[in-house]
Design brief:
- The complex is a heterodimer of chains A (143) and B (428).
- Chain A is α+β, with helices and mostly antiparallel strands.
- Chain A is built from five helices and six strands; from the N terminus they run E-H-H-E-E-E-E-H-E-H-H.
- Chain A has a single domain, classed as Dimeric alpha+beta barrel (Alpha-Beta Plaits), CATH 3.30.70.
- In chain A, the strands form two sheets. A four-stranded antiparallel sheet of chain A has the order 2-5-1-6, with helices on one face. In chain A, strands 3-4 form a two-stranded antiparallel sheet.
- Chain B is mostly helical and 428 residues long.
- The chains are: A alpha+beta (143), B mainly alpha (428).
- At the A-B interface, strand 2, helix 3, helix 4 and helix 5 of A face helix 1, helix 11, helix 13, helix 14 and helix 16 of B.
């Protein structure tokens, strides 16, 4: 299963001050660990909301609002996408985010992705079970 | 309580390859290392639900396992050879202060873990083991899967898998397989064995050869994880990246490969908006890495490049068939196979029409390897049908139907034979 580890911002991340050398090194080590464990799929950091803009929808009207936005805790500062075996494994990885980074974060939210099973209706699963055989491997159907 | 156990399982999954790898380096025996690690796990299962999981569970498990090793050595008085040396090392450590020991263990766990895990991969996939044994041992030692999970994944009774793993560990010990990353001439062959094991796991998940489920996404994920671990450790090996590229791109189509009623959908008919763009991006990046390392003509990189041709085409009609024909040609040079030639024939027919495809098919039709391969008459029938040679096409479809093992495929081929009789419109 896939989880997004969403980093909620802090006053510091919102201030736009870049991490120190030491903090970067600690995060680099953590990212390396995620990668070497084969769980890291994607990651990115996001600029503070002073650079952001919102488009709000209400009663058929669209309103454009420039950042910054209040409530640093509700702001997303970055994310990792990880592939793990269980919810507990996702938690375990989140707990290992190094202390040096915590200055930047207020919290990390773990959100599971929708998976194949979430979409497959009962009948489809049953039919797939009956089928129990692979595709013919011609070029058009190359797997 | 249950939550604590699930947490410990998660810790185990993360820590066990590093733990077993580090222990195997110390005791020079993968089987013994795994037993020591397992015993540490049992201790954790007893203690952690009450005390909570320690801050550094990996170091805790390592300390526990090492102490256990020392106890065993003392009790058994097996103080000779490598055991003697180990005993001395451990005793010296015990004399050091607890804090210093913990620090050293932590350092040790951090230090060389990458190399240890890589050594573990090569050992678990050693050619001295049968293929089944390599697969089971790899999932167990590197994937952190339990025997029960492996048994479930391969629809094999649990005792069979357990026995397979015990025998594999014994074989490794008897053959005195050194715990190391192979170098020089041996390395290529050993790496091929590792890649084969990972791709076998992947394919068992992607197109199950046994059982009722056509796909088992969990195995696909396990294989991808193993592949990514390998590519992360053997960064200079182009084929490791090639294999990861191939698996990422193939896995990107998981969601698009079945219809709502559960029937397989051929690649050209799939809804490409359902392809996982994140995995495609990762796959293309891994392929670039393989090629940058000079591995463009590796068998896995070539297959990944073929998969990439489809991944890059936003619609089936935009497929670069010329490049696909070239890649199959290259693949056939690297790993000659009449099945690759058949695939090339189909790709060529997409470019130049059925006549061109038919020529290649007829050239390989006599190959012994294709004697019971139902796709040969099926593809040949399709070309003949498109050329309007309906009577010959019908004979081929009937031959293919008689050879097909799968009921659905057989039904489809019989239907196509019937269409020839009615003089159905070519190109359907």
């Amino acid at each position: 299963m896939r989880y997004m580890m969403i980093v909620k911002g802090s006053k510091l991340s919102e201030s736009g001050v870049l991490p120190t050398e030491q903090e970067l090194a600690a995060m680099g080590k953590y990212n390396d660990e995620l990668q070497k464990a084969g769980v890291l799929l994607d990651m990115s950091g996001l600029k503070p909301t002073s650079k952001a803009v919102k488009v709000q929808f209400a009663n058929g009207k669209r309103t454009v609002i420039d950042g910054p936005f209040a409530e640093a805790k509700e702001v997303i500062a970055g994310y990792w996408v990880i592939q793990v075996k269980s919810r507990e494994e996702a938690i375990e990885w989140a707990k290992r985010i190094p202390a040096e980074a915590q200055r930047e974060f207020s919290e990390v939210e773990l959100r599971p992705f929708y998976e194949l099973e979430d979409f497959a209706p009962g009948a489809a699963v049953e039919a797939a079970k009956e089928l129990g055989k692979k595709l013919p491997a011609n070029a058009g159907g190359k797997r | 309580m249950d939550e604590a156990i699930r947490r410990i399982e998660a810790v185990w999954r993360i820590e066990s390859p590093k733990l077993i790898g580090a222990l195997a380096r110390l005791v020079r025996d993968v089987g013994l290392a795994e037993e020591l690690a397992q015993e540490a796990l049992v201790t954790a299962l007893e203690k952690w639900p009450e005390t909570g999981v320690p801050d550094n569970p990996g170091a805790w498990l390592m300390t526990t396992a090492k102490n256990r090793a020392l106890d065993d050595l003392r009790r058994n008085q097996m103080l000779r050879g490598k055991h003697k040396q180990l005993g001395r090392e451990l005793e010296e450590e015990q004399e050091a202060s607890g804090a210093a020991l913990a620090a050293r263990l932590e350092r040790e766990l951090d230090d060389d873990v990458g190399d240890d895990v890589l050594r573990l991969i090569f050992t678990a996939c050693h050619p001295v083991l049968a293929r089944d044994a390599r697969v089971a041992l790899t999932l167990r030692l590197l994937g952190g899967l339990t025997t029960a999970e492996i048994a479930r994944a391969f629809l094999t009774p649990e005792p069979t898998i357990a026995q397979r793993i015990v025998r594999a560990k014994k074989t490794l010990a008897e053959a005195k397989v050194p715990f190391e990353v192979p170098r020089g001439a041996e390395r290529a062959e050993r790496l091929a064995s590792v890649l084969e094991v990972i791709y076998l796991v992947f394919n068992e998940g992607y197109a199950a050869t046994a059982g009722d489920d056509w796909m088992r996404p969990e195995l696909v994920e396990d294989a991808l994880r193993l592949g990514r671990v390998l590519a992360g450790l053997a960064t200079e090996e182009p084929e490791a990246h090639g294999l990861v590229a191939l698996m990422e791109i193939q896995a990107s189509r998981l969601h698009a490969r079945t219809s709502p009623s559960g029937e397989p959908i051929l690649l050209l008919d799939q809804d490409r908006s359902r392809w996982d763009q994140l995995l495609i991006r990762r796959g293309l990046a891994a392929l670039e890495k393989a090629e940058a390392l000079g591995g463009a003509r590796g068998p896995y990189a070539l297959q990944a490049a073929l998969a990439a041709c489809h991944a890059r085409a936003r619609a089936a009609a935009e497929t670069d068939w010329a490049r696909i024909v070239g890649l199959y040609g290259a693949l056939n040079e690297v790993t000659p196979s009449p099945i690759v030639e058949l695939n090339r024939a189909v790709a060529l027919s997409m470019l130049f029409g059925p006549e061109a495809g038919l020529k290649i098919v007829d050239a390989v039709a006599g190959e012994a390897a294709l004697a019971s391969y139902h796709l040969l008459p099926s593809i040949r029938g399709d070309f003949l049908f498109k050329l309007g040679r309906l009577e010959a096409a019908r004979a081929e479809f009937e031959r293919a139907a008689a050879m097909a093992g799968n009921a659905r495929e057989r039904a489809l081929l019989e239907k196509r034979a019937g269409e020839c009789l009615r003089g159905g419109s070519p190109g359907t």
